[in-house]
Amino acid sequence: MYLLKTIIVATFLLIFFSIRKSKAQESTSRIVSSLNEFINPIKTISPDSNFSDLEVLRESLKDKTIISLGEATHGTREFFLYKDGLIRFLVSELGYKAIAFEADFSAVQNLDDYINSKTESINTGQGGFPLIQETRSMLSWLRTYNQSKAPENRVHLYGLEARGFSNICGQILNSLISLPSENRELLRRIQQTKYFDLSTKDINGVRAILPYLYNETDKDKNGLNRHCVTMLDQVADNYLNRKFGKRDEFMAANATWILENTNSDNLIIWAHNGHISKSALFRGASLGTYLYQKYNTGYFAIATDFNQGEASVFVKKNGRITLGSKFYPEVTSANAYEYYFNQCKFQNFMINISALNGHEVLVPFFSKNLSMKMVGGTDGLIRIKLSILENFDLIVFLNKTTSVDNKK
After folding, report:
1. Which of 7, 27, 351, 369 is buried most, with the most CB atoms less than 10 Å from its CB?
2. How far apart are CA 375 and CA 28, in angstroms?
């Protein structure tokens, strides 16, 4: 009798799990089939090619105020090349004239000087801009493009933040030449001190002179000097409060400043997927959250994603942090978006989430909280669960990727 019950239970469980597996396979097949109807192939990632792959995006992108170009890692060669091509398309075909990077404002000004032929050398100092072979090609193209344009139609580059005190203090010292000697000495000392060697007393000293600096820059006609003081204020706030998410709030405010204080009606942003998302994926609102709240449908977020491949990241080796390459394996979990993307008919493709128009399969699918690969500056893989529909307007999927060329 006991044996019979055991056989019945085992048979029931076998049937139950077989049906469950069959339904899961049927669901996966339906999702992949629907994806195949909507995806557009990426035939080349070379930025030097024509824009035939990108023409399908023209209508979706042409009237946007801000287009954010995301990256799942800061060190993937194919992401950089593809974003270079997107920038060339947006600049030459849709008239975008302002590009802002997740990098230091003062450092990126040096790059702006280069693409506008004010200097012959490319130099960013310590600013967070990835000055590598892949971006040098983009800067060279922008420089050539600008040389054929009238001043009012040239592209300009901006940083979205002040990274540390050194560069921003230097820019303020160079701009406000009539500063009282005690204020100048304080800013110079802060400029020359390493960030982690600064004290709360030092930063409180900076905050004490901010009212004077703001008052002085009220006379600034183009607003640049005042913006530099604002960024100094932001860095001091970050140092003293260290509140997660403040950085994104400040970057969003700085993006708005660019739009309101330059001759450009629209803006391209280059940043990590985690920053450009429309909802708060981590502990605080993202850059994209603030921009989406302000510009609504005028904000368009393009995320990049990958199935497997290498990325350049900071790794710990022999007790030291150094830049190296790490391989991230193929996704095998059905709880990840890449699991389904990997089964599509094209190895590399884009899908316009904003154009799904209530699709009965894909809208529920992209509404699910599934994991999506993200890697920050270090080598840890972040498997953040999110709804693509709620966060991004376009997904660029590249199946196999390689590390950037870190040779400068």
Report:
1. 351
2. 26
Nearest to 371 by CA among 398, 334, 323: 334
Q: pLDDT-derived band of residue 18, with 50, 70 and 90 as boundaries?
A: very low
- The string of pLDDT tens digits covering residues 100-129 is 999 999 999 999 999 999 999 887 666 888
Which domains are seen in the chain, by residue range? 1-96+267-408 (3.40.1660.10), 162-245+260-265 (no CATH)
pLDDT at 127: 81
**Poorest-confidence range of 10-24, 170-184, 206-220?**
10-24
Residue pointed to by tokens 């399908």: 56
Question: What is the crossing angle of helices 224-241 and 200-217, to 10°?
Answer: 160
Tens-place pLDDT, residues 280-338: 998 889 999 999 999 999 999 999 999 999 999 988 878 788 888 999 999 999 999 99
Residue 408 has what pLDDT? Answer: 56
Cα of 405 vs its chain's centroid, Å: 19
Read off the tokens for 39.
Answer: 């995806």
Tokens of residue 276, six digits: 């450009």
Token pair listed for 256: 């708005």
Q: SS3 for the chain, per residue?
A: CHHHHHHHHHHHHHHHHHHHHHHHHHHHHHHHHHHHHHCEECCCCCCCCCCCCCHHHHHHHCCCCEEEECCCCCCEHHHHHHHHHHHHHHHHHHCCCEEEEEEEHHHHHHHHHHHCCCCCCCCCCCCCCCCCHHHHHHHHHHHHHHHCCCHHHCCEEEEEECCCCHHHHHHHHHHCCCCCHHHHHHHHHHHHCCHHHCCHHHHHHHHHHHHHHHHHHCCCCCCHHHHHHHHHHHHHHHHHHCCCCHHHHHHHHHHHHHHHHCCCCCEEEECCHHHHCCCCCCCCCCHHHHHHHHHHHHEEEEEEEEEEEEEEEEEEECCEEEEEEEEECCCCCCCEHHHHHCCCCCCEEEEEHHHCCCCCCHHHHHHCCEEEEEECCECCEEEEEECHHHHCCEEEEEEEECECCCCC
- β-bridge mates for residue 204, sequence order: none
What whole-number distance in Å separates Cα of residue 116 and Cα of residue 146? 6
317: which strand partners? 320
The CA-based dihedral angle spanning residues 51, 57, 59, 63, taken in that order and rounded to the nearest 10 degrees: -90
